[in-house]
UniProtKB/TrEMBL annotation:
Chain intervals for the UniProt region annotation (Disordered): 1-54
GO biological process, one term: DNA-templated transcription termination
Protein name: Rho termination factor
Residue ranges, compositional bias (Basic and acidic residues): 8-24, 37-54
InterPro entries: DUF7218, Rho-like_N, Rho_N_sf
Pfam families, sorted: DUF7218, Rho_N
All copies of domain Rho termination factor-like N-terminal, residue ranges: 53-79
Native source organism of the sequence: Neolewinella marina
């Protein structure tokens, strides 16, 4: 059974598996908190086509720190580097 990481991690089992593969805590959390991360399809809009508010909300959802001080370009970079 996977360790409970609290409310910040939505899928503890997936998070633990990703960490075991060597991913950083932030990247593993980002993927574990995305409900359809394992599904293929590519239906999301490009980051450049989204508003700063939409990017901020996505950054908040995946736990990017310092997001409130970031520009749109910085949010895009942080989301991609995740």
């Amino acid at each position: 059974m996977a360790k409970n990481h609290g409310n910040s991690i939505k899928d503890d089992e997936r998070y633990e598996a990703l960490r075991d593969e060597g991913m950083s805590k932030q990247k593993a959390a980002r993927i574990a908190n995305t409900p359809d991360a394992s599904e293929k399809g590519g239906h999301a809009s490009k980051y450049e086509d989204r508003t700063k508010k939409e990017l901020y909300d996505e950054a908040k959802k995946v736990g990017i720190e310092g997001r409130s001080n970031m520009s749109k370009e910085e949010l895009i970079k942080a989301l991609r580097e995740g």
